[in-house]
Write a structure and sequence with these properties.
Length: 393
């Protein structure tokens, strides 16, 4: 692995940081959270039109830039620094790779250029995101319904697919232009999980925005009441759970870089503050105890950054280490955000300060994609780290 960045990667990071500094400051962030969609459409148009961010990792044949997943991960590190809410994660990290992997030629041609241009947003609607992406346990498809109540069911009626059921905590589920819905079909004996395309204006589709712990990660509650849907692909491709597991590992690598960016900014703001706040006639940053605490955060952050970068680079080699990197990054973010609140003193607990937003991002991501101990436990199980081995005497 070459740890140095290419000129193109440096340019992506620099340009994106400058844009977010101008367009996604603390006041702009709070204003965006109060909109019905939960993000600023003008910022999304700038990210798509000026930087081509939605199509960064899509092939050029479909209007994308053709960059590797690592470049998208580095871009998400910058959006993580400002906690900028946008459809980027749901659209470009989750939905677009699934359409590329499973969709027919007609579906790819119809959808991916619009996603790359930023004119179409999409999301993955599943009952349990961490389970569906095989981040915390084996993905066997039961999360989609499994022949039991709950989840989403699909049945074929007069040559068309009809969906019924619900999914909660769907990223941008209330605002996305296209839903990729995972549904269970085939009954108990021949059961399987398939993905379906559901446009936002489909009859019988009910969507409402949910109140989430992390307001910078907007989520929706999706209900499907006998909704007509289009099957993604022909249904003869490799199993949807296997593809979701592959996409999940890549998404974990991107999320790890995003969490590292948030942790880096939280630490940066804390270092700035302790260099200004005075106590007992001295700035508190001069106290050794404070320096030790921040040094511990810095070491943990750098370790998480190394793991995240490696996981993003390893996606090109089909080496699945995204879950481990995400676990380390989430712990680093939680530590950095917690220390930020503590060392900011009384102001760190107030709604007016941004410190609580970083803490909520850490807690919210653990609820959606973790927690860290389950991410590590599943990685250990997959590697058979604690499997019993027969010993011959």
């Amino acid at each position: 692995m070459d740890p140095s960045f290419t000129a193109e990667q440096d340019e992506i990071r620099r340009t994106l940081r400058e844009l977010l500094h101008k367009r996604s400051g603390p006041h702009e962030l709070r204003a965006a959270l109060d909109t019905p969609a939960g993000h600023d459409p003008a910022l999304w148009a700038a990210l798509a039109g000026h930087l081509g961010l939605p199509g960064l990792a899509l092939p050029e044949a479909y209007g994308g830039v053709g960059c590797p997943v690592a470049d998208l991960a580095l871009a998400c590190e910058e959006t993580g620094r400002t906690l900028a809410p946008s459809p980027l994660l749901a659209t470009s990290v989750l939905a677009a790779p699934l359409i590329l992997a499973l969709g027919t030629d007609a579906q790819r041609t119809a959808l991916l250029p619009r996603i790359a241009a930023g004119t179409l947003t999409a999301t993955l609607a599943v009952p349990a995101l961490a389970t569906a992406l095989a981040l915390t346990c084996v993905n066997d498809g039961d999360w989609a319904g499994g022949g039991r109540a709950g989840g989403v069911q699909a049945r074929r009626v007069a040559g068309t697919w009809r969906l019924y059921g619900e999914a909660t905590q769907v990223l941008d589920g209330h605002s996305a232009g296209l839903l990729l819905v995972a549904a269970h079909t085939g009954g108990y004996v021949r059961s399987r999980t398939l993905l379906f395309l559901v446009p936002r204006d489909s009859a019988g589709l009910v969507r409402v925005r949910q109140t989430a712990l992390d307001a910078t990660r907007p989520q929706g509650h999706v209900q499907l009441r006998d909704v007509e849907a289009e099957l993604l692909g022909s249904g003869d491709e490799r199993g949807v759970p296997e593809v979701l597991a592959l996409i999940g590992d890549r998404a974990a690598a991107v999320l790890a870089c995003e969490a590292v960016g948030a942790a880096d900014r939280a630490l940066e703001r804390t270092v700035e503050y302790v260099g200004q706040r005075e106590q007992f006639g001295r700035v508190i940053g001069s106290f050794q105890a404070v320096q030790h605490r921040l040094a511990d955060v810095y070491v943990q952050l750098q370790a998480a950054r190394s793991a995240a970068y490696y996981a993003a680079w390893a996606t090109r080699r089909d080496e699945r280490v995204g879950g481990l990197a995400l676990a380390q990054a989430l712990e680093a973010l939680r530590t950095a955000a917690g220390e930020a609140i503590q060392l900011h003193g009384g102001i760190g607990f107030t709604w007016e300060h941004e410190a609580h937003l970083y803490f909520k991002r850490a807690a919210g991501d653990e609820l959606l994609f973790g927690p860290a101990h389950r991410l590590r436990a599943h990685a250990a199980d997959r590697a058979r780290l604690f499997a019993l081995k027969e010993v011959t005497v």
